[in-house]
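Each record in this resource describes a single protein on a pair of labelled lines. With that in mind, the following record should read easily:

===
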Amino acid sequence: MKDFTARPLAADDVDSALRLCDIDGIDGNVVRRELAAERDYCWMGLFTADGTLASVHRGMRWHERLLLKGLFVDERFQASGAGLRTVLAVRDWASRNGFRGVLAWVEPSKPEAHLARRLRMRCGGPRLHRYLIPLPHAQEGLPSGSGPVRTATGTLTVPVPDGSSPAVEELLGVEQCTPGAIRLAWVLDRSRLVLSGNPCDSVTDLDTLVEAAKSLAPATGATSLEVPFEAADLHSALWLAGNAAKRLSRTPVSLGFAPCGGERPAAVAPARNAASAAEGRA
């Protein structure tokens, strides 16, 4: 095992990180902006003794937990355990900084499934697909410059009709305190707002969600919403495909959770009941 040192990235590390990172929408301005918002984002690097960046992992505050979003390992260190070392360093950083745990979208066929097992993540709830839904008239691109965005994470209250059933229950345990509405957590990931549920009773109700979220665009520079749908909801899948909505993974994902410290894994939000799911596919 090589002698590695893990630490959060600094401004001088941005160019090295970009050589490893392969994510659409990530450039030097985005990395510097997230480094400046150090309360809400973590860029963790694993360095060799001579200062070479072997691996980098990116995370972001999503309600009370850190969402792991992108692990990149230099091909020279693929077999060294650098990836796992970096993920563990991110988890330790989250624990030191008061997060309740770490989260990840786990796709069974991808390497993150192995890392989720090593982290003893609990994956439950419905199998999901995530889609990008445009925010009409949103500001193009993120705010200019490399300073932190004015708002990087928060909650969004979406009005819902009486008797409606959300397509995906709120996933993170956000307190629900407004009658006739569902409160979601969101975090800015590049130019999209990642939502912690889908309050729409039907895919045709997305306009209500977009209307509630579009006020966030000026403060965040977001141009789209990342909205989850149950993978089994074929009616919504066909509608979204017909409207050219981008699906973010080829196969369904589950939301995995690992606690920080001594916290026990919380219950994961259930899928819609069978009757509601059947109605959604009709």
About this structure: The longest strand covers residues 122-134.
